[in-house]
Design a protein that fits this description.
25% strand, globular, alpha/beta, 4-stranded mixed β-sheet, UDP-N-acetylmuramoyl-L-alanine:D-glutamate ligase, single chain, binds adenosine monophosphate, 13 strands
Length: 304
């Protein structure tokens, strides 16, 4: 049946201390889909672009077995554009602009043949739109959702409705604190799980990720990379790798969720090594598995 992915498809202008790139391929659905395409197929992308969206990006996504039957192309509109600038400390980012363009009136319509999808990854879009997607899906078995500070602050009521209907929420540490008003992440995780999701993943940037379940917790490191060029999309790629692996293995045990977290971190480490989606366009399964094993080695230790 494949994996259903809904989110933004964008052209990003990104500046880091090393380089600047204009109108490069980006967006939450794009990053998620590319990362998950290394694990499972087909990836069914639902999103919107304008008629200026370059054909070469369409070709590249289709080459990765990403079905674009749910990608709306709005005649006469421009594609969503986002601009960000990273500081010398790459954990700090300023949003320079957000031009919604075609995204402004996005109404996510799930093609009929995709409505019975069992696995859904709701990328970072307005919670009201995430609810519309949930309403159209009839057979969901496992739903993962991402969000951001903008929605926590401005559309909290809708976000709380979404949380009641998803199995896992993936957010970063500052968003977890914002959502709960609780500085301690362990306490925040407990509060978030009470809002609905059975599991919660809190990403801590270069400090890895925490997975929370019923009375259980797992801490995964981030891969210590020497060359980080562009952190854009790392969170989406984490979610894509995580969900792609779960879809492939169809095993939702806590032990397998742990492996999925490590695969998510593995894919994120490839993403940040190059600008835009370049780090995800030409990977091999051997490279991915090799880095996954390095992760395992990184946190393994023996008793005396
Ligand atoms: P991340 O680095 O994980 O925060 O994801 C960055 C991606 O999110 C970029 O490719 C942007 O195009 C996209 N993005 C930024 N702002 C928004 C927004 N308000 N809604 C949807 N996608 C966004």
């Amino acid at each position: 049946m494949g994996l259903l992915v809904v989110g933004s498809v964008a052209l990003d202008t990104v500046e880091t201390p090393f380089d600047k790139i204009d109108d490069a391929l980006g967006g939450s659905a794009t990053y998620i889909s590319l990362a998950s395409s290394y694990f499972t197929a087909p990836i069914k992308l639902v999103g919107v672009v304008g008629d200026d969206f370059p054909k070469e990006h369409i070709k590249m996504l289709e080459y990765h077995n990403i079905s674009l039957d749910g990608l709306q192309i709005v005649e006469g509109a421009k594609t969503f554009r986002w601009g960000g600038k990273y500081h010398y400390d790459l954990n700090v980012r300023d949003t320079l602009f957000t031009h919604l363009n075609a995204f402004e009136h996005f109404n996510p319509i799930i093609p009929d043949e995709w409505r019975k999808s069992k696995y859904l990854l709701l990328g970072n879009i307005m919670p009201a739109l995430q609810l519309k997607v949930l309403d159209q899906c009839t057979d969901l078995h496992f739903t993962v959702c991402d969000t951001m500070n903008l929605w926590i602050e401005n559309t909290r009521e809708d976000l709380l409705k979404v949380l009641k209907r998803v199995n896992i929420l993936i957010i970063n540490d500052s968003e977890a604190r914002l959502l709960t008003n609780e500085p301690n992440l362990i306490k925040a995780a407990k509060l978030i799980r009470e809002l609905g999701p059975k599991y919660l993943i809190i990403k801590k940037g270069e400090h890895g990720a925490l997975l929370f379940g019923e009375d259980t917790m797992f801490s995964a490191p981030a891969y210590p990379l020497e060359n980080i060029y562009d952190p854009t999309g790392a969170g989406d790629v984490f979610a894509g790798g995580f969900m792609g692996y779960l879809h492939k293995t169809a095993d939702l045990s806590f032990d397998n969720l742990k492996r999925a977290v490590v695969y998510g971190s593995t894919m994120a480490s490839f993403c940040v090594e190059k600008f835009s989606t370049k780090g995800l366009e030409n990977l091999s399964n051997i490279e991915i598995y090799g880095r996954y094993l390095e992760f395992k080695e990184l946190s393994k230790f023996e008793e005396e």
